[in-house]
Write a structure and sequence with these properties.
The chain has 7 helices and 44 strands. Helix 3 runs antiparallel to helix 5 and helix 5 packs antiparallel against helix 6. By secondary structure, the chain is α+β, with helices and mostly antiparallel strands. A hairpin with a 7-residue loop joins strand 7 and strand 8. The longest helix has about 35 residues.
């Protein structure tokens, strides 16, 4: 049979049509599968904006009968706002109201899933201390509304990538701050997630469907870790001197701690394989530390390198340098007799040191610790986020609290009968030191509590969240004093703007109970307030005159007055220890730098005011004697 040119053309067109139809059907199936995987639908919300006065702005978002109203005061040359008010109305009735002093309030995510619509809010408080505070509102098909607290957030915020579909169910992946809190310097490179199943207006944590993925990631990190070790084992000097930060290959953590190690360890833990996580940590921590033993040894010989600038007749003698921890020193405290020192590190160890011999005589697991003034109890934050109290002499555990939301500060009352704790929550809790009974709880803070302490007579408890200092009467439960500092802004060039920093980083009370000390203000080293009136009594100034504020941005993050009220110790973000004479208000000594990798110091003063202990981010502790 002879095919004409027309027949050939029809034949080719038929083939092309069949191929096109096949691809179209395949595309439909593919789209159908994609729709099946994507069980939720993103919602687009548009804001109705309006000006209210010179520097105020109002945003209104509507979804059915629900209205979200955000009013805020605009800060010039900044992406942030202050005096932010969120009001949520349903059918014209106020359902929810909250005020934020400062930050950025946004709706980064809105979606529909099953019979609910979800509106997710992100309040970013800005500055070096993060954080993204996440919460959401769930609206059902009958327009009933509920509020949902979203744990996590931290440095990462939230967007559509946090929505994960598994087996036809929708999960929200949120950062796990049990791990990430201490490793924020590479939190953007390695994220530690917990998975929450979304069920109507409720969240239920369920990591089990993701265990195989945790194990897969752990193996990948472990392989990278082995390759990294092999690479630098051939040339240790390259490892020691390396400043590589790309791809999170190395990070500036103690002992050049590799983020690959942390990623593998955390994922093994999340997959329920704790023993494997501990083995990996122990093995590779030692391996990488051994590559820089010479560096560590030479670094400990710092007596000749550290300069002590002494003004006047104040004398200091260096007695000991101790390699106390593998990682940063998080807390230091002398025992009541002044003969021993308790140190806590972010390596999860709490150690008791005999100062005469320089040896460890006791050790427990934890990351923060204090001893009662009578020497009977040691309270510490355990690695599983519990407050625990043990008998100091016997080492017997007396009680443990339930899991708390990130313990940040612990303090004993002067008589040793009570323990106060602060956390990532918004309240101070007073516990019976002997049996763990909760005595009282005090609210009135925004964000996490940075420090908590008792007044010298034990009648008051004091706490700060970085903006305000609240003083409470323990017997009545009343707030008797509130000191609120003004927000501070630091100018940065790239991008050109002012960013927010917290004005209060640390507090202390004078031994006579008359003065409250505050460190953290950018341009004055230590502020001293009258404990009765709350008024500023005087300021302990730094050696610099901060006439040009853009060039004087030293932040103090620790302050302590000596028990004999003769001197004040403070330190900040340049790793120098500063000492002022309390009586004449003058700076008498500066020692440092006492750290290289990260200028974070912890300080303790002995009960007789004769010894000062200083711990740094690399795990070293210096002990100085004050000479008359």
């Amino acid at each position: 049979m002879i095919l004409t040119s027309r027949t050939w053309l029809n034949f080719i067109l038929a083939i092309l049509l069949s191929i096109t139809t096949a691809f179209a059907e395949q595309g439909k199936e593919s789209a159908k599968d994609k729709d099946k995987d994507k069980v939720y639908k993103l919602l687009k919300l548009s804001a109705k904006k309006a000006k209210s006065g010179k520097d105020k702005e109002i945003e209104i978002y509507k979804l059915g009968t629900v209205e979200f109203k955000i009013s805020k005061k605009i800060i010039p040359q900044s992406i942030y706002s202050e005096d932010i008010n969120l009001e949520v109305y349903n059918k014209g009735t106020l359902f929810y109201k909250e005020k934020f002093d400062f930050g950025l309030l946004e709706i980064p995510l809105a979606f529909e899933y099953k019979d609910y619509k979800y509106i997710v809010f992100d309040h970013y408080s800005g500055g070096a201390h993060c954080c993204h505070d996440l919460f959401a509102f769930a609206i059902d098909k009958d327009n009933n509304i509920s509020k949902i607290e979203l744990p996590g957030g931290g440095h990462s915020g939230i967007d559509e990538s946090n929505l994960v579909v598994k087996n036809g169910k929708l999960y929200i992946a949120l950062v796990d701050w049990r791990f990430a809190y201490f490793y924020t310097s590479f939190a953007d490179s390695i994220a530690f997630y917990r998975y929450f199943l979304l069920d109507g207006a409720k969240l239920k944590e369920d990591n089990r469907p993701f265990e195989s993925e945790y194990l897969k990631e752990s193996k990948e990190y472990e392989n990278k870790l082995k390759a990294l070790y092999k690479k630098y084992k051939a040339n240790p000097q390259e490892y020691i001197s390396s400043k590589i930060r790309t791809d999170a290959e190395l990070d500036m953590l103690p002992e050049w701690f590799s983020p690959y190690l942390m990623g593998a360890v955390v994922n093994y833990i999340m997959a329920g394989q704790r023993e494997k996580a501990e083995r990996l940590y122990d093995e590779y921590f030692i391996k990488f530390s051994s590559l820089e033993q010479d560096k560590v040894k030479s670094y400990l010989k710092v007596k000749d390198k550290i300069k002590a600038q002494i003004f006047g007749e104040f004398l200091l003698d260096l007695l000991h340098i101790i390699q106390a921890h593998k990682k940063s020193v998080e807390a230091l405290v002398f025992t009541p007799d002044g003969k021993k020192l308790i140190s806590a590190g972010s390596d999860g160890k709490v150690k008791v040191w005999d100062l005469a011999s320089g040896k460890v005589i006791k050790q427990i697991s934890g990351y923060d610790a204090v001893i009662s003034p009578d020497g009977r109890f040691v309270a510490y934050a355990s690695n599983d986020q519990m407050l625990k109290v043990m008998d100091y002499e016997s080492g017997k555990l007396l009680w443990s609290s339930k899991k708390l939301k990130g313990l940040t500060s612990i303090a004993f009352s002067p008589d040793g009968k009570y323990v106060a704790s602060g956390s990532l929550g918004d309240q101070i809790v007073i516990w019976n030191a002997e049996n763990g009974e909760i005595i009282k709880q005090f609210k009135g803070f925004k964000g996490y509590i940075k420090q908590v302490l008792f007044s010298p007579d034990g009648s008051k408890v004091i706490g700060t969240d970085g903006i305000r200092i609240n003083v409470y009467d323990i017997n009545t439960g009343d707030m008797v004093l509130n000191i609120k500092e003004k927000k501070q802004f630091v100018y940065i060039k790239d991008p050109e703007q002012y960013i927010y920093v917290e004005p209060i980083s640390a507090i202390d009370v004078s031994t006579d109970g008359k003065y409250l000390l505050s460190a953290g203000s950018l341009y004055t080293a230590v502020k001293v307030f009258d404990m009765t009136t709350g008024k500023l009594a005087f300021v302990l100034k730094d050696y610099k005159t901060c006439e040009n504020k853009k060039e004087c941005n030293i932040m103090m993050d620790f302050v302590k007055i000596s028990p004999d009220m003769k001197f004040v110790v403070a330190c900040g973000d340049n790793a120098y220890l500063r000492i002022w004479d309390w009586n004449n208000k003058k700076l008498v000594a500066m020692i440092g730098p006492l750290g290289k990798e990260y200028p974070k110091l912890k300080v303790a003063i002995s009960p007789d005011s004769k010894l000062i202990a200083v711990g740094n981010f690399e795990g070293h502790v210096w002990i100085y004697k004050i000479s008359e």
